[in-house]
Write a structure and sequence with these properties.
With about 190 residues, the protein is of the alpha+beta class. It is built from four helices and ten strands. The strands form three sheets. It has a five-stranded mixed sheet with strand order 7-6-10-8-9. The protein has a three-stranded antiparallel sheet with strand order 2-1-5, with helices on one face.
């Protein structure tokens, strides 16, 4: 609202108040409804009127979280809305009318990796759509003498096993005329340049 007021004042336009309805009590997190929770994600669980049950939890490598009273709860592979429903169902044994909010505080399970002759190899968060050229830019570009014609993108297959390998040429992707398509990356993909 402040941004709208400043922008309206700067342009001399009249302000039109907007009202944004509050999210329903116990709603899932504000990210996309189809976000799938994975290992290493940090979740904030807020139980209404139950501060002892509320707090941040990390999804362990086995896909589970530990919640007071509820003990071990499977979280990986679920959306925040599905996890919310599961937590509310299990909490009914201890709380009358439980109401839980599930927020993905850190999306650590969605990463892509770049190795080889780039300035900053390593893991990068995949918080939205990202292409191979964008990942190369995030990694600081190529080092001197890197062969930019032989880039391999290794897609992660089922159960984390190596999947499809796609070859890509940076030079052909950067051409002004008829560039080759810039492949979109998926969580767990690794871009390799020797």
């Amino acid at each position: 609202m402040l941004f709208r007021s400043v922008a309206a004042a700067a342009t001399g336009q009249a302000q039109t108040p907007t009202s944004v309805p509050a999210p329903p009590r116990g709603s899932a997190s504000p990210q996309a409804p189809d976000y799938v929770i994975g290992p290493d994600d940090v979740l904030t669980l807020k139980f209404w009127r139950e501060d002892d049950l509320s707090g941040d939890v990390i999804v362990r490598p086995d896909g589970r979280i530990t919640v007071p009273l509820l003990n071990e709860v499977a979280a990986a592979g679920l959306t925040p809305a599905t996890l919310k429903a599961q937590l509310e169902q299990r909490a009914q044994a201890f709380i009358s009318e439980p109401n839980v909010t599930v927020i993905v505080k850190q999306m650590n399970s969605r990463r892509v990796f770049v190795n080889g002759m780039v300035e900053k190899p390593g893991a990068y968060p995949l918080v939205g759509p990202m292409t191979a050229l964008q990942l190369i830019a995030l990694a600081g570009g190529f080092r001197e003498f890197a062969n930019t014609d032989q880039i391999v993108i290794m897609h992660r297959g089922a159960s984390g096993q190596p999947g499809l390998r796609v070859s890509f040429s940076y030079r052909q992707g950067m051409r002004r005329k008829n560039p080759i398509p810039d492949p979109e990356l998926q969580p767990g993909d690794t871009l390799i340049r020797s």
